[in-house]
Amino acid sequence: METELRLESSLWVGNKRYRAVLSGWHFNWTEVDKKNRDKKTISVPVAEVVGVEEGRVEILPRKSVEDTDKDFTVFYVKRSSSGSSYGLLWRLGRIQFSCPSRVLRDQWTKHLRTALKTHSPLRPNRLLVFINPFGGKKKGRKIYHSLVAPLFELAGISSHVIVTERANQARDHLLKKDLKGFDGVVCVGGDGMFSEILHGLIGRTQQEAGLSENDPTVALQPCPLHIGIIPAGSTDCVCYATVGVIDPVTSALHIIIGDSQPLDVCSVHQASALMRYSVSLLGYGFYGDVLAESEKHRWMGPLRYDYSGTMVYLSNRSYAGIVQYLPADPLLSSPRDRTRCLSGCSVCSRTTERLFPHSSVYTSCLSFCAFPGEWVSVEGRFRCVSLTCMSSSCPKSPLGLSPSAHLADGTGDLILVWDTHPLGFLKFLYRHTSTQDQFDLPFVEVHRVKRVPAKSVWNCDGEILSSTEILCRIHGQLVRLYARGIEEGAAVHNCGKENDKCQMGCTLIK
Ligand SMILES: CCCCCCCCCCCCC/C=C/[C@@H](O)[C@H](COP(=O)(O)O)NC(=O)CCCCC
Ligand SMILES: Nc1ncnc2c1ncn2[C@@H]1O[C@H](COP(=O)(O)OP(=O)(O)O)[C@@H](O)[C@H]1O
Ligand SMILES: [Ca+2]
Description:
Elements: E1 6-13, E2 16-23, E3 26-32, E4 38-45, E5 49-54, E6 56-58, E7 64-66, E8 71-81, E9 88-98, H1 102-119, E10 126-131, H2 140-154, E11 158-163, H3 169-176, E12 184-189, H4 191-209, E13 226-231, H5 237-243, H6 248-256, E14 261-270, E15 273-278, E16 281-285, H7 286-295, H8 303-315, E17 319-327, E18 339-340, H9 346-355, H10 359-368, E19 376-388, E20 412-418, H11 422-431, E21 444-455, E22 458-460, E23 463-464, E24 469-481, E25 507-508
Parallel strand pairs: 10-11, 10-12, 12-13
Antiparallel strand pairs: 1-2, 2-3, 3-4, 5-8, 6-7, 8-9, 14-15, 14-24, 16-19, 16-22, 17-19, 17-21, 18-25, 19-20, 20-21, 21-24, 22-23
Helix pairs in contact: 2-6, 3-4, 7-8
The chain binds the ligand CCCCCCCCCCCCC/C=C/[C@@H](O)[C@H](COP(=O)(O)O)NC(=O)CCCCC, adenosine-5'-diphosphate and calcium ion (CA).
């Protein structure tokens, strides 16, 4: 049986005395007053300790070490509310302890480092980092070098950094080059850059497994490498929907501590050829037109979407189409159940039990054999048709395209917006920016699905598809991100209590 590490000592922080305790999953320190009474305790899960250094160490504004032999510094994750966003900001906390002897100091640093390894086994040692210097406001390089690289260095992570010189360079690198020794791949950029990494890693994994991505019936192999996203793009939807905030430091800390968030991926085929993979918005009609229009105005940066959205809305278009879908099991969850997929979500973990560790077998089973229900077909004129494997929340729409969608349940939400008068459609769009229910409109339908074939023109995570007739299939938990889902600050939960998870692990939408 594994012996639990426990260490308890009286240590000093400045001129205050503390009782520091390392036990099991937690490291905590309590100020003790002159009469030996306990004051405030700070408790940090060992998995959230970023690093332990001998001496008195600072990393900001630059690294400095005062090499004293009785001191040690602990860096850890500190949370703060993010104001407008739903998730929590993570910041680097720091505490400098003084020990009565060097022997005790060495005991503390050794025990803490051992505990770190034991309690967070997915911490990366070596990362491959791709920076898109032209994403978003073109600040990718600066964001990485000033905010992220010092944290990686502090955590002892070595990174191989590639600043891309062309589109698809990151994807091609992942498909062809030696990836031995890397624990994960990090992209610094937006959803387009993430999509390159996604395609490279899924493609490489299938190549190595001898599987054909062109076969829509094949059970794809899950990717062994984790993906980290440092947001530096225009929409940054995948980051927002998996972390809850667009903040490079928060994302870097999730990478460092080796958080792991599985993600559903939708494969998009035409006839017997793979077109793309999608995790967020696969959208026809309005969203396809906005993307096509926005590509002409890339020079505007992120504002191109606001401009193009307005222009496309004013053009007042609708499209004839046929959409068929295979509904998911309604007993498991529904897109109208008013829950949210948050960190530790039980709907996703129930699926996890079935998918891991033999995910390929069960993915195949869920999609082909064990799945109840029949194909449903709808035909008519649509303003837009969207399929999303996750909520697709982003700063423009904090609850997202489908607020109750799940990151890793093996399903996607299909949103059908029938042709309607312009003000009705504006109401639908506007509701995305607030907490009002965009599905509670007579011309909107939402279905939780496993597969969809359709005829249209598509925006696939920010890329235009050349074909209109497509077959989509959701592959549960095909990739894993360095993230943990959204941690909510002060939310109202199913049980009615604040800041207390309900038994389902989900919370009511505010
Ligand atoms: C009257 C107010 C209207 C507001 C409408 C708000 C609806 C917003 C939903 C946005 C969902 C975004 C899903 C993510 C899409 C991205 O993959 C894609 C590419 O992003 P990037 O690589 O960072 O450029 N972004 C888009 O397709 C932009 C859609 C904007 C629609 C207005
Ligand atoms: N060096 C480069 N030059 C031009 N395009 C690039 C480069 N690196 C990546 N790209 C492409 O730029 C597109 C947009 O990148 P992204 O980082 O998502 O920014 P944004 O969110 O502003 O669209 C992606 O599709 C990606 O393939
Ligand atoms: Ca899903």
